[in-house]
Amino acid sequence: MAALALLRERGPQGVTVEAVAQYSGSAKTTIYRRYKNRYELLRSSLAFVEDIPEPSPGLPVRERLVYLLTQFRHGLEEVVGLRALVALLHGDEDPEFTQVFRETILGPRLEVIFQTLRSGVESGELRADADYETVVSMLAGSFIARFAVRGAPPPADWADAVVDTIWPAIRAA
Fold first, then answer.
1. pLDDT band at residue 149 using 50, 70 and 90 as cut-offs
2. Do residues 24 and 2 make contact, with C-beta atoms less than 8 angstroms apart?
3. For the HTH tetR-type domain, which residue ranges apply (predicted)?
4. Bridge partners of residue 126, in order along the sequence
5. pLDDT tens-digit series, residues 19-48
6. Contact between residue 132 and residue 118 where contact means Cβ atoms under 8 Å apart
């Protein structure tokens, strides 16, 4: 899809009806027939990647968390691109994109991680008294922080390393 390719290559500011028309070889009128504005174009493009590959519920919680974080990373690096993350951090520069990104990409993925932690509490694998909203922020935030500090994505073993770091604080005794 042209809009996603432009998002990865140029960031959200590069996703305009005109740019999508040029990139895809379509007429602007063709795009305007499907989308009445840039917001709808962005929403539709990001909805294309809304499906979240979920791990098997039979896996231990720790393995499901590593899987979900790996998918989170893949989505940011390969699907929407790191320019989308940078734009999200500067949300006031492109509020339409920020809203759509939070609603269609970030929020649902973090919710799946949160649900996985809740299921771990229900199964007795995780402590019931941990602050899991903070844990989710720490898990996802570690990727963002590593990228911000180093200017490059974290190492290949990032998902395992971050779960290993948090695991002693949340696992049931």
1. confident
2. yes
3. 1-53
4. 171
5. 999 999 999 999 999 998 888 888 888 876
6. yes
Query: Which structure tokens are listed for 137?
Result: 């922020």
Of 147, 149, 13, whose CA–CA distance to 72 is shortest?
A: 147
Instruction: Report the pLDDT value the prediction gives residue 82, as an integer from 0 to 100.
Output: 80
- Exposure letters 124-155 (e unless 16+ CB within 10 A, then b): eebeeebebeebbeebbebbeebbeeeeeebe
* DSSP per-residue codes, 4-21: HHHHHHH-GGG--HHHHH
CA–CA separation, 59 and 12 (whole Å): 36
**Structure-token pair, residue 90:** 């500067």
Q: Which domains does the chain have, with CATH numbers?
A: 2-46 (1.10.10.60), 53-170 (1.10.357.10)
Which tokens sit at 52? 């979240």
Rounded to whole angstroms, the Cα distance separating 33 from 36 reads 7
String of DSSP letters for 21-56: HHHHT--HHHHHHH-SSHHHHHHHHHHTT---PPPP
> What Cα–Cα distance (Å) separates residue 66 from each residue in 53, 87, 155, 167?
13, 26, 14, 11
Entry pTM: 0.84
Place of tokens 């990727």: 143
Angle at 146 (CA atoms; ends 143, 152), nearest 5 degrees: 100
